[in-house]
Design a protein that fits this description.
The complex is a heterodimer. Chain A is built from 19 helices and 2 strands. Chain A is an all-alpha fold. Chain B is mainly alpha-helical. Among the domains of chain B are: 287 residues, no CATH class; 36 residues; 58 residues. Chain B is built from 24 helices and 4 strands. In chain B, a hairpin with a 7-residue loop joins strand 1 and strand 2. Classes of the chains: A mainly alpha, B mainly alpha.
């Protein structure tokens, strides 16, 4: 019941926000912050105390198809992640959106999205997951198209088209699970137990469909193209939704479909593993190479997200507990690093109106807080030890090497190549910012250009989280490895 | 007690933060603080060294879960020795830097990263497994990047770019090697790797991971062909940083190579041969580049590369010689230590020149040291040492390395002819070393500057006391080591041998054979310096009527500019081009395909609509319309005929109901009567018919409102009751 309330509360509170017609910015800020914080507190309460084995069924479709909310360990992980990130992203957007305008509708949808994302995290079966997954598309669409400026309408349409394609594919896959499976609720190892041999090819094809469908949100090549396009959206949307909530929901959905519905046993060692794996491995390199080529800083980060999401998907597709371990590590760590990077990038854009990498010369000294956090996140994302990016990449590569077959070469090679490219596309802006070349005329701005505390505080907290996890993360590590091994 | 080891790493890193914070308020205090921190670290490392010289048990430290695999530190012979050398290097540069940086910008940044690098470097040297080595190695690579970029000039930025690229690519390649090595051996601890590798039938599967690891560590060490950063980075970095880069950071690369060569590829002849050839090329090429260069620090940088080559040859000999590797092992260790000391002194001398003149070209700085005996003697000590002249420490280590090669040649093994060639190159390179050091010494301390000699000679107070200590002590140490090899250097090499998996072996340091080697090298120099350096590499300058040094190296012959950069850029460009083509293709195909599909469906529906549905609907609609039409007509007619026959309507009131109308009429009449009788003079003018009608309407409206409200709530109540009933009855 508390789970359902947790999902419903932000959705309702977000939906009625425009009814108040708030004129005062402070009042709305307090309202939004309050709703978000209450939801987060409730979410944390659920994470720590909701029992794993009881489900809240809120809709009986048929005997087999029930919609239910249930928090298993993986749900806890994702719930905890977004409950940690969301309030600070809201705090950040409170200031950011002052520059954008249209805050009433923005915050209404933003708050509703929180509930829907929690729904994805807490869903206990495939159908619920699918429902929330589609709702997420619809709820985030107005955010992408916010105020319909800067070609956002076109980007939003693109997003919609891709998502609809994904929905169609995923639906077909899910229906197969529904017909052949014991139930649709998530079980580690899959629900397709009593399959005859001649049914397996069909279900492998079904897995491919479901993978591609869920892969749209995880931006797996060739369905990645919407992600760089929607980086025209306001930064809080790009940072929280298109680096964490939406895309990570896609990654979670892929993991759910792979490990909890179709099951590794069905697909391991077949073309249904090899093909998606190759797509993911290709995307890892592809995204990084495109990011190197991209000159617009925010789009560059978006391409980097494309690449990093495929790290997660690739890790999961090794179909070993170690691979899932690495994937979940990267899921958490990448969320932290990328949201920091995006928000720092947004701070630069609002404070200085500079959008291209070549325009960042010497900004490091003008915006110290922003750029220190950006640098830490960048160094970590490249995978420089001892930062968290290194931990997850090490685990992923190790899992790849251990997986055997051609995976043991392809996975680490893709990771290493991508890491080199990552270094190129992230160190260049960082080096520009801290070491301005002398031949470029320095326009020394007066005083610090850093934004106010509302934007700085989230950056600092995230950066601190990166540093703390770099040094000490063993509880999280052991929790994740328990999930990966399917321990109850 | 074992917490000293992580403390040694964490302490400088914490000091880095503190010194940064102090530096925002006071420069002097920051300089003192940084210097004290470095001296403290030196003190602790010295204590560790003395501890292991006394033969006490090695300290160990293990931390689970650090960065995934855990951290293993250990302070035994070689590690304490090198930790101590690192401490000495940092303490020396720390004493020297306040004066050197007096007029620099961004000193806070320098000190911050300098202390961070100190911690990371100690981490590398104290590590007991390759994973820990790698982690600190990477941290060190990136924190030292700021040294190269410190001046922020275009050439510094370019060198820094190269340094960073080499660090990133080298680091990642090493990482790949570590993945594969871990997969193959199941452990990365030094002792564990030795056992696992010896348990294998064939080392063939280890060559690829080994080569990848060698690439990364070799890149940091300055090994050919990945030495490219070294000659570029040193001249542009501040002098204390150059001393550290050259004296100690290159040694971290060597440390990694040592770890792999002596654990995984112990006594592996193929591996030894590869290292031997690479080391030989590095050694000779470095010396050659140094001879050609006319830039003081660039020469020293190339010299570093050359000396690294000597060390690599030593490592190779250990792999080749197998159990008989003691001499080569001693030579390797001692040459590492010696080279660190030489470069500390030489780069700080160069820094002294640079901080006064801000020039490094030999033609501009010549004669500056003529009247500065202290600097001259220190430079001479290090110069003689690095050239391998007997009585200075370089002679001992080079002789040991030389003996190592000779021993292998004498063994007559398969690769002996190659080793013989290497031995010849070794002697020649020794001669080249002496030549370029003579070139530097003569230029800076003997020759006269054509125009500014007077000014140079008047500059007497060129070095502060801490600076003098920093340069003088290591110089003294070089001489001391050279004079007492069997006492001082013997102790150090014996201490380090267990790490190199070798055993002590008696050595005659000043044997005839060794002296002969030195004499050969001097003979080479005696030919090269007067005939090549003085004749070919100098030409008359018509302006000042003296000889000028000229760079005879081919201008466009640069491995980095002509091979690596185009290669990487081409690779990136091709990558980007291919992928963006794919991207565009996708954008051009998938989205249009989706949209076309949508359009097709829509058009199909549209056409279906046009062709079938609309005509059908029209037909059906018309038919029913007609029918309905006639039905209406008929029924209207029927109704008119029957029920709704026209009647003459009764007189209706114009406003209000009949009752109100009559009431109004009545009142009107009464009023009329009254007006005629009593109220004759004040007649009532109100017309009562409309007034009553209005009042009635008002009343009716109110009642209907009431009734509606009540009926609504009744309805609601009823529904609620119904639901309640249903719920109860269920």
């Amino acid at each position: 019941m508390l789970l359902f309330l947790n999902v419903l509360f932000p959705v309702i509170m977000g939906a009625i926000l425009p009814l108040f017609r708030m004129k005062s910015r402070t009042l709305r800020s307090v309202y939004v912050m309050l709703v978000t914080c209450i939801t987060s507190v409730l979410a944390f309460y659920n994470v720590f105390s909701s029992p794993s084995d009881t489900a809240f069924v809120f809709l009986h479709l048929t005997e087999k198809a029930v919609c239910m909310l249930q928090l298993d360990d993986m749900g806890r992980l994702f719930t905890g992640l977004i409950a940690f990130l969301w309030p600070m992203a809201v705090l950040y957007s409170l200031e950011y959106m002052e520059h954008e305008g249209g805050e009433n509708s923005f915050f209404a949808w933003y708050t509703m999205t929180y509930g829907i994302t929690l729904g994805i995290a807490m869903s206990g079966d495939l159908i619920t997951l699918y429902v929330f997954y589609e709702l997420l598309t619809l709820a985030t669409l107005p955010l992408v198209m916010h105020r319909l400026i800067n070609g956002r309408a076109a980007a939003g349409l693109k997003y919609l088209y891709y998502s609809l394609l994904g929905a169609a594919l995923a639906f077909a896959g899910i229906m197969l699970v529904f017909f052949y499976g014991d139930s649709t609720s998530f079980t580690y190892g899959g629900v397709l137990t009593g399959l005859a041999d001649e049914q397996k090819p069909l279900l492998r094809f079904g897995y491919l469909l479901a993978f591609l469908g869920m892969g749209v949100k995880a931006a797996v090549f060739p369905l990645h193209d919407w992600l760089p396009s929607v980086s025209v959206a306001p930064t809080p949307v790009t940072a929280l939704l298109h680096a964490v909530a939406v895309v990570k929901a896609g990654a979670i959905a892929v993991i759910r479909v792979t490990f909890y519905a179709f099951g590794p046993a069905l697909i391991a060692g077949t073309w249904a593993q090899a093909l998606p794996f190759c797509l993911a491995a290709f995307t890892v390199v592809f995204g990084s190479a495109m990011a190197v080529k991209e000159k617009h800083f925010k789009r560059r980060l978006a391409y980097s997200t494309v690449s990093n999401l495929s790290y997660i998907v690739m890790g999961a597709l090794l179909l070993t507990p170690e691979g899932l371990d690495g994937a979940l590590n990267h899921l958490i760590f990448h969320a932290l690093m990328k949201i920091t990077l995006f928000c720092a990038c947004g701070a630069i854009m609002t404070q200085t109106d500079r959008e291209y990498v070549s325009e960042l010369h010497g900004l490091g000294h003008a915006m110290p807080v922003t750029f220190v956090t950006l640098t830490v996140a960048a160094v970590s994302l490249v995978g420089i030890p001892p930062f968290i990016g290194f931990i997850s990449k090490w685990k992923l590569a190790q899992a790849g090497v251990m997986a055997g077959d051609f995976y043991s070469i392809v996975a680490p090679a893709a990771l290493v190549l991508s890491a080199i490219l990552t270094a190129i596309y992230l160190f260049i802006p960082v080096a520009y910012a801290w070491f301005p070349a002398k031949d470029i005329p320095e326009s020394k701005p007066a005083g610090s250009l850093d934004p106010t505390w509302k934007m700085k505080l989230p950056l600092i907290i995230w950066c601190a989280a990166i540093l703390v996890l770099s040094v000490y993360s063993s509880p999280l590590q052991s929790f994740i490895s328990e999930i990966a091994r399917g321990a109850m | 007690m074992q917490l000293v080891l992580p403390g040694l790493i964490v302490f400088p890193m914490l000091c880095a933060v503190v010194s940064y914070l102090i530096g925002r308020h006071s420069r002097r205090a920051r300089d003192w603080f940084a210097c004290c921190a470095e001296l403290t670290v030196f003190g602790v490392t010295l204590w560790l060294l003395i501890r292991s010289l006394m033969g006490q048990e090695a300290l160990q430290f293990h931390l689970d879960g650090f960065c995934g695999l855990g951290m293993n530190l250990r302070a035994d012979g070689f590690r304490t020795l090198y930790a101590c050398v690192a401490g000495l290097m940092w303490a020396g540069t720390g004493l020297f830097s306040p004066q050197y940086f007096a007029h620099y910008r961004n000193r806070n940044r320098y000190h911050f990263f300098c202390l961070l690098t100190l911690g990371a470097t100690l981490g590398v040297f104290l590590s007991d497994d390759l994973y820990t080595t790698f982690i600190f190695f990477e941290i060190m690579s990136f924190t030292s990047y700021t040294w190269v970029a410190h001046e922020e000039t275009p050439s510094a930025m370019r060198a820094a770019e190269t340094y960073l690229a080499v660090a990133v690519i080298g680091g990642m390649v090493t990482l790949m090697g570590l993945f594969l090595m871990y997969q193959a051996l199941g452990t990365l601890s030094f002792d564990g790797m030795l056992q696992a590798a010896e348990a294998l039938d064939s080392r063939r599967s280890l060559y690829l991971p080994g080569a990848l690891i060698l690439f990364g560590f070799g890149a940091k060490g300055g090994m050919f062909p990945v030495h490219i950063w070294l000659p570029k980075a040193h001249p542009v970095a501040p002098a204390p940083a150059s001393a550290l880069l050259s004296g100690i950071l290159t040694k971290t690369g060597i440390f990694g190579i040592l770890a792999v060569s002596l654990s995984v590829f112990r006594h592996d002849a193929v591996w030894g041969l590869v290292i031997l050839l690479l080391g030989c090329v590095t050694m000779f090429l470095g010396a050659l580049l140094g001879l050609f260069s006319i830039d003081l620090k660039r020469t020293l940088a190339c010299s570093s590369m050359s000396q690294i080559g000597f060390i690599l040859v030593g490592i190779a000999c250990q792999c080749l010689l197998g159990e008989e590797s003691s001499l080569a092992a001693q030579g390797t260790v001692l040459h590492m230590v010696n080279h660190s000391l030489f470069k500390l002194v030489l780069f700080m001398c160069a820094g002294t020149v640079y901080m006064h003149l801000h020039k490094l070209d030999l033609n501009d700085i010549r004669g500056w040291g003529r009247s500065k005996p202290f600097l001259k003697i220190c430079f001479l000590m290090a110069g003689l040492g690095i050239s391998g002249i007997p009585l200075w420490s370089g002679f001992v280590s080079k002789s040991l390395l030389h003996e190592g090669i000779l021993e292998y040649v004498a063994e007559g093994a398969a690769f002996a002819p190659i080793a013989k060639a290497v031995e010849i190159i070794f002697v020649i390179t020794g001669g080249l070393t002496l030549s370029y050091m003579t070139k530097l010494f003569v230029a800076v301390f003997v020759e006269k500057h054509p125009t500014r000699q007077q000014e140079f000679d008047e500059n007497r107070h060129y070095l502060s006391l801490p600076g003098k200590i920093a340069i003088g002590l290591p110089a003294l140490l070089i001489f001391f080591f050279g004079l007492t090899p069997s006492f001082s250097m013997r102790a150090l090499s014996d201490l380090a041998l267990p790490f190199l998996r070798s055993h002590p072996h008696a050595v005659h340091y000043f044997s005839g054979e060794n002296l002969l080697g030195a004499v050969k090298s001097v003979a080479v120099a005696a030919v090269v310096y007067p005939f090549i350096v003085r004749k070919w590499m100098m030409q008359p300058d018509p302006e000042t009527e003296t000889e000028r040094y000229v760079n005879r190296w081919l201008k466009h012959f640069d491995l980095e500019d002509s091979v690596y950069r185009p290669l990487i850029q081409g690779f990136l460009a091709a990558f980007g081009w291919l992928f963006s083509l794919l991207d565009r293709l996708l954008e051009g195909l998938l989205l249009p395909a989706l949209m076309t599909l949508g359009t097709l469906i829509a058009e199909g529906a549209d056409r279906l609509n046009d062709r079938c549905l609309i005509p059908l609907c029209t037909f059906v609609g018309t038919f029913f319309g007609r029918v309905l039409d006639s039905v209406t007509d008929l029924s209207v007619v029927g109704l008119k005929k029957t029920v709704m026959r026209t009647r003459t309507p009764a007189q209706r009131p114009t406003v209000g109901s009949l009752f109100a109308f009559r009431l109004g009429q009545l009142l009107d009449r009464i009023v009329a009567v009254l007006n005629h009788t009593i109220l004759r003079f004040h007649p009532i003018k109100t017309r009562f018919v409309p007034a009553v009608a209005a009042a009635e309407e008002d009343m009716l409206e109110t009642t209907s409102y009431f009734s509606r409200t009540i009926s609504f709530s009744l309805l609601m109540f009823a529904i609620g009751l119904l639901i309640f009933l249903v719920l109860i009855l269920r």
